[in-house]
Amino acid sequence: MVVVALVLAGLAALVHVYIFVMESLTWTSAKTRAVFGTSAEEAEATKELAYNQGFYNLFLAIVTAVGIVLVAAGSEAAGAALVFAGAGSVAAAATVLLVASPDKRGAALKQGVVPLLAVVALLVGLLA
Fold first, then answer.
1. Who's near 48: CB < 8 A, 6+ residues apart?
2. What tens digit of pLDDT does each residue of 37-61 get?
3. Which pLDDT tens digit goes with each residue over 71-117?
4. ∠ CA 35-52-120, rounded to 5°
5. Is the pTM here over 0.90, yes or no?
6. Taking the C-alpha atoms of 42, 44, 45 and 50 in order, what is their torsion angle to the nearest 10 degrees?
7. How many CB atoms lie within 10 A of CB 45?
8. Domain that holds residue 8
């Protein structure tokens, strides 16, 4: 079950690296604006906020990835703590998005289900 958890956490980390790219690098592009449903004017007005938010996503992905590497290298306790922190934070942020903006349910589920499953699978795997 731990391996399943690490694969799921890795997928969640990859999604958040992609979100980082969109928010911090391509925020004002037509393709990214279509994903987020923003106009050119809205994207231009919010690009500094998106840039910063993108880095939050990147840092959570890095924490999760380092945790995966540590578990794989045999440092299960430290690695699991980082996976719980990274994937758990991503799942919690998705929950906040769902509660605060119910119209963004699809985005919240896309961002939050996989890391939540990773956290649950890791917990089950460690307790087994």
1. none
2. 999 999 999 999 999 999 999 999 9
3. 999 999 999 999 999 999 999 999 999 999 999 999 999 999 999 99
4. 70
5. yes
6. 90
7. 11
8. 2-127
